[in-house]
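Field reference: "sequence" (input) and "structure" (output). Example, Dr1-associated corepressor:
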Amino acid sequence: MPSKKKKYNARFPPARIKKIMQTDEEIGKVAAAVPVIISRALELFLESLLRKACHVTQSRNAKTMTTSHLKQCIELEQQFDFLKDLVATVPDMQGEGEEPHGDGERGPRRGRRPGAGRKNGGPGGKGKDPKQSGTDTEQEVGGTPIFPGE
């Protein structure tokens, strides 16, 4: 009986990984499992980086993760030292007591008012979007929780 090939469940496309690998002239043939393993390693690496960056973001009582949060995470964690050159040009985070506008006054507010968008039931909307009813820990990407088990 012929054996069936196992379909790998990869979040990063193995074909794209293989194509990137083969841009190096020193790499010849690549076994089918190699791009899948690299895909999984990339997934684990990103999960680790984002978990630690999330802790930095939460410790600053921020709701949005910024490049400055990633920079601080990379500078604090020894395992991410190889990324320091990549974030060297990113501005540092402001200190705990520093005000972004100098004399303590807030600058003009930018962006939409809360609830003014269509997804939040604003003009042209047909009610609240069911995807927005979950809490931060219930958010999903591609049908699976961002950080399962938390």
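The longest strand covers residues 140-141.
The beta strands are 140-141, 144-145.
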